[in-house]
Model the fold of this input.
Amino acid sequence: MNPEDVRTVGVVGAGLMGHSIAQEFAVSGRQVFLNDVSEERLTDARERIRQNLEMLGRSQEVDEVESRMTFTGDLRTAVENADLVVEAIVENLEVKQAMFRELESICREDTILASNTSTYLPSQIAEATRNPERVVVMHYFNPPHVVPLVEVVGGRDTSPETVETVRDLVVSQGKKPVMLKKEALGFIANRLQAALLRECFALVEDGVAQPEDIDTVVRSGLGRRLGVAGPFEVFDAAGADVWHAICEQLMTDIESSTEVPPAIARMVERGDYGVKTGRGVYEWTPQSTTALRRRIAHAVEEIGRWNDGE
Ligand code: NAI
Done:
């Protein structure tokens, strides 16, 4: 299948990720069906897509983009004519497997079934299906309408054609695909983020620094470089000799626990999920949440211009 053959896309799950993934496909001229079990989420999704486009200075496109979108609580309506389905529901393997089983029973045989899972292997999700060759991971980054990267991960039985179609589709949308050479839990980016977050929470737990200070260190220091140079480029700029000395001192001292960081477990127990609930590491109001989203969207766009033409 060529990218232009993907004309109709079903997105399942209209939350933080799903609404924005659906927006991306509608902006690129495709017919999009956005499905959720919650009517409230579907209503919110329509409003957020409008806000996202306004934030990007594309208010004049709102009506046209909306005209290509159908918001529906009925899964069959959303996926029966789809060339591609992207699943963005809760991060739970059994729930995702049940969804893929159902998708397979509704969709055409040649429909590509993609998951936006943050961690699971495509092979684990495909275990529930009869045709694992069309199951693939398309891992977007929050917010998908701004961040270009999409990790494309094929499983044990995913066909090379499926991976190639998804890769070409991502390129045709002006986004940046990275294909893993083999599947790994959490792919590349979430393995890196998890390693960083484990150390961040350990520094707070051990009383070394406040969350604000750690955010300042990243925002004003290492994050500034990472927007334009990868960790290996930064490594080479510093020198293997320097990093050898740093590793000799630090490798036995940095956090290596194999548990979920206790602070994250406590937050989940309290129902403090971050901006979704108004409290996470910090307190959030609707205003401060919008300000954060705006700051990220504008900065990511700006950094994108510095990376253009590479
Ligand atoms: P979310 O909680 O904002 O949205 C999930 C949506 O799925 C909800 O609206 C829920 O009502 C709906 N849903 C649940 N079961 C459903 C079903 N059976 N049929 C239809 N809709 C159903 O979650 P979020 O953050 O959008 O995450 C979705 C997926 O994307 C997860 O797998 C997550 O790991 C992944 N992801 C999340 C990122 C993030 O930054 N939050 C980044 C990249 C991937």
Summary: The chain has 13 helices and eight strands. The CA atoms of residues 114 and 136 lie 5 Å apart.
